[in-house]
């Protein structure tokens, strides 16, 4: 998609990064009441934590992303991390200034504990015995990681899409630990339409005979179902206009979607997909924290917010971001908001965008200054 | 900075909470923050200007002023500023009431329609005035109101909104220098700037 976007990438690369694993042996009780132990969380960091530990930026990935947000794992990697355009020296999230932490979510399949991991009770992969997870559970695990890294208060939590839901959850669940928050292209709860697409995707997986009620780890995987699930998802990430740009001939879109679906099968676990989409569908900030009121939910928050949406995002349209902004304003919170003109649909936050770059850089710089000033006052 | 904005800035007390409606790229807010230590927020409809303001480290919401003023709690601000926008407002009395709900004080500025140069154009040429202050033809103007200073004062009396301060100035609104007009302002001033207080019961 990036061939249609204007190249704006400046700055350098963070270079080589390493996937690390943080382990909580005793685990914790997840919100459905089951105990999950041990827990492992895959993460990477770039930049340096400063002496007063005031420059940590937690980057939260979208549904099927991972902990690899910038730089390269090895010298011959074809592709850098998923947000390399945003994170690096002299880039908007400037690793010369900020200490970036990115973790793979609990329930994922890129190094964190998820359904494909071994169940200590049986010695076999969890499959459907893995407990149902919420966005809140993912955030609780991330909090433990942040504790482990010696960060009391994040300068900023930033993420798009399902990553943006985690940003919102962080800022409401742990108001004292988040100085600022940047939820991008996200929502405080899924619309019926978003749930509908996820349900079609899940049904595609479960209709694949090879899925075998989640118990497929010894044999063939439900590749067909997972591929269709990805195709459904991929449609929601694009826009009418981006498809028109991308596909000059009729029906090119078919082979493109099949290619995307097949590529996805190589890197993603079908059960993880089921768990993560359910967590996103169940996310509901107003019910979980505000007894049905989004204004009440944000009354817990203390963070300064930068909210951004994209004009062509029909998965999480601008009105959903505006509802959040409205609730923040009613609570007297410091909030900035911009609806960014972009034709590429929901995925726009991952593509080069000069506007997003300048918003992020300017906001983070102000936050850094204000955080330092507040820290001085507190002494 | 524009002379009218300098006048507005001089009325704002240091350290206060300020909402700037139609803040553009945030020139006034940035100046008030840097020189008066105010806590500022802006509303701006244009994406590019709103983006530039946020990138300057200002707190700005990209949106429509009529909708955005509704969400703030009562007396959330010390000053709510509406600079050079009243002439484009559909329902001025509703907006000014909303501004006085969320702010203790309200600062309004607008081009004076009864400025003598405008009168001359209409009188001598029989045509709608086009000037540096009102640089639009009748068919392409965003301005839907004509506001003489004298009428604005009558309008405030009608709303029981007290005018706490008023200054009429004579300059092009992009000029950094201008003069304050005290003699026959309704005729001689190109802009009016008003500080409004809470409506009297």
Strand order of the largest sheet of chain B: 3-2-1-4-5-8-6-7
Based on secondary structure, the structural category of chain B is alpha/beta
- As residue ranges, the low-confidence spans of chain A are 1-8
Shape of chain B: globular
SS elements, strand count of chain A: 12
Query: Could you tell me the strand content of chain B as a percent range?
Result: 15-25%
Head-to-tail CA distance between termini of chain B: 38 Å
DSSP summary, beta strand count of chain B: 8
Mean pLDDT of chain B: 92
Helix content of chain B: 25-40%
Helix-strand pattern of chain B: HEHEHEHEHEHHEEHE
Main beta sheet of chain B: 8 strands, mixed
Q: Average pLDDT of chain A, to the nearest integer?
A: 95
Q: Runs of chain B with pLDDT <50, length 5+?
A: none
The radius of gyration over CA of chain B amounts to 16 Å
Order of helices and strands of chain A: EEEEEEEEHEHEHHHHHHHEHEH
Tally of alpha and pi helices of chain B: 8
What about the largest sheet of chain A? Answer: 8 strands, mixed
Radius of gyration of chain A: 20 Å
Structural class of chain A: alpha/beta
Helix content of chain A: 25-40%
SSE blueprint and pairings:
The complex is a heterodimer of chains A (379) and B (201).
Chain A: E1 20-24, E2 28-29, E3 35-36, E4 39-46, E5 56-60, E6 87-88, E7 93-94, E8 99-103, H1 135-148, E9 156-160, H2 162-173, E10 180-184, H3 192-206, H4 223-237, H5 240-246, H6 252-267, H7 270-282, H8 285-290, H9 294-298, E11 304-310, H10 318-330, E12 335-340, H11 354-378
Parallel strand pairs in A: 5-8, 5-9, 6-7, 9-10, 10-11, 11-12
Antiparallel strand pairs in A: 1-4, 2-3, 4-8
Helix pairs in contact in A: 1-2, 3-4, 3-7, 4-6
Chain B: H1 3-11, E1 17-21, H2 27-36, E2 39-44, H3 47-55, E3 59-62, H4 65-70, E4 77-83, H5 92-102, E5 103-111, H6 116-125, H7 149-158, E6 163-170, E7 179-181, H8 185-188, E8 191-196
Parallel strand pairs in B: 1-2, 1-4, 2-3, 4-5
Antiparallel strand pairs in B: 5-8, 6-7, 6-8
